[in-house]
Design a protein that fits this description.
The protein has a six-stranded parallel β-sheet, sandwiched between helices. Strands 11-10-9-12-13-14 form a six-stranded parallel β-sheet. Strands 7-8 form a two-stranded parallel ribbon. It is globular, with a radius of gyration of 23 Å. The protein is built from 16 helices and 14 strands. By secondary structure, it is α/β, with parallel strands linked by helices. The longest helix is centred in the middle third of the chain and has 32 residues. The structure holds uridine-5'-diphosphate-glucuronic acid.
């Protein structure tokens, strides 16, 4: 049983703390938001993650998991301290390292000699070395161990990762981190810290590129009257391509891809490499959102002002309650700018209207959102939108018209009900 400290109780920190406790370790996790700490200590999850609540309760009951205020309190008498604090974008796209710096400086005086500090947050190349400098302790090793979990499946991804990456120039520290993962069945790659840091960014950038490629193929299909569903299915059967992350949509969002793609461009530029390909992918993602607005405009007959749109889904993807960098919010904001009435529904958004742009009317069901709408726009692929009674939706709407940015519905089925339907790259 190892003694582990986790700094930061966000998606990565909570998953790290809960999973290490589940794997039989003694874990203390810190944050700076008291309300969150209290909630977690009561066994309540502050984020929507399937299966995680149960393991949280188990850890608390066993006494192998606790949540405390302040980084230093999670670093005392610990053999390993994982930094899981935010690394947001600055206005220029570079990474704001202030949370990492603050955490490192706070824990430095209390760290046990010989303990290991691990960077799990996505940090620019060279950060592992910076953390060593912030700590200013030569009896502490710093190791990079990037996280690859997806929101909404954090528990599964943490316990069943595709690979574990450990980056350090200190081989014995790297081996001690490897030992922590001994009960997880996955290939372990030990490398230097800069390579580990690049692996994380390059993986996210590649996945973003793959989605943008699927979006571009969908756009091409629209131009040549082909069906993207068949095209991508057949492409996916090629094992070199695969089916994953090949679903067209309104463009990728969330707290990671937009931030990490921009950061990688900046990391390259600062080092003298112009990552033109990645710049193109970021631009393509912006254009994808514009295409969605244009589809909505056309579906509304080229006249948006004063129309009512039922917007289904506000989170950046299904099965999460995260609204950060959500394409749905970006679309809602564009519609509001054009004086469209936006009636939105999302299964996870009830009383968070304060987090949304003023003007988005939050409804308590998809049916309420559909009332008197000139158009229904599906922005997030929540399963419940697939199962709606579309006859009822049609009766509630002013006009039976759907823009489905996730290709969630069967076009023929809704057309049979009398809807006009616009998907992404559908015939
Ligand atoms: C992403 C990566 O998938 C994780 O591996 C990584 O650890 C994480 O970022 C991170 O850096 O912390 P996440 O942002 O939770 O995870 O969500 P994804 O499932 O990757 O989705 C990102 C965006 O791509 C969403 O807007 C989603 O709707 C979109 N997407 C995804 C598509 O449009 N099509 C797809 O086929 C897949």
């Amino acid at each position: 049983m190892a003694k582990i400290g986790v700094i930061g109780a966000g998606y990565v920190g909570i998953a790290t703390a809960i999973c290490f406790s589940y794997l039989g370790n003694d874990v203390v996790c810190a944050d700076i938001v008291e309300e969150k700490i209290d909630k977690l200590n009561r066994g309540e999850m502050p984020i929507l993650e399937e299966g995680m609540g149960e393991l949280l309760s188990q850890g608390l009951a066993k006494g192998s998991l606790k949540f405390v205020m302040g980084a230093a309190n999670a670093a005392r008498q610990r053999e390993f301290v994982f930094l899981c604090v935010p690394t947001p974008s600055t206005d220029t796209g570079t990474v704001d390292m202030s949370y990492i710096q603050k955490a490192a400086q706070e824990i430095a005086p209390v760290l046990e000699p010989g303990s290991i500090v691990v960077t799990k947050s996505t940090v620019p190349v060279g950060s592992t070395v910076f953390v060593q400098q912030f700590l200013a302790r030569d009896d502490i090793s710093v190791v990079s161990n990037p996280e690859f979990l997806k929101e909404g499946s954090a528990l599964h991804d943490t316990l069943h990762p595709d690979r574990i990456v450990i980056g350090s120039s200190d081989t014995s520290a790297a081996m001690r981190i490897k030992e922590l993962y001994k009960d997880i069945y996955a290939p372990v790659l030990i490398t230097d810290s800069a390579s580990a840091e690049v692996i994380k960014y390059a993986s996210n950038a590649f996945l973003a590129a793959k989605i943008s490629f699927a979006n571009a193929v969908a756009n091409l299909c629209e131009a040549v009257d082909a069906d993207v569903k068949d095209v991508l299915l057949a492409m996916g059967y090629d094992r070199r391509i695969g089916f994953d992350f090949l679903r067209p949509g309104p463009g990728w969002g969330g707290s990671c891809f937009p931030k990490d793609t921009k950061a990688l461009v900046c990391i390259g530029a600062e080092a003298g490499y112009e990552f033109a390909l990645l710049k193109g992918i970021i631009a393509a993602n912006r254009e994808q959102l514009e295409r969605v607005i244009e589809k909505i405009n056309l579906a509304l007959g080229g006249e948006m002002e004063g129309k009512t749109v039922a917007l289904l889904g506000l989170t950046f993807k299904a099965n999460t309650d995260d609204l950060r960098e959500s394409p749905a919010i970006a679309v809602a904001e564009q519609l509001l700018l054009r004086n469209v009435v936006v009636q939105a529904y999302d299964p996870t958004v009830e009383d968070r209207s304060s987090m949304l742009s003023a003007g988005i009317q939050i409804c308590s069901s998809a049916y309420e959102a559909s009332k008197d709408a000139h158009l229904l726009v599906i922005m997030t692929e929540w399963g419940e939108f697939y199962k709606l009674d579309y006859n009822k939706v049609k009766e509630l709407m002013m006009y039976p018209c759907i823009v489905d940015t996730r290709n969630l519905l069967d076009p023929d089925a809704v057309k049979r009900l009398g809807f006009s339907y616009v998907g992404m790259g559908r015939k």
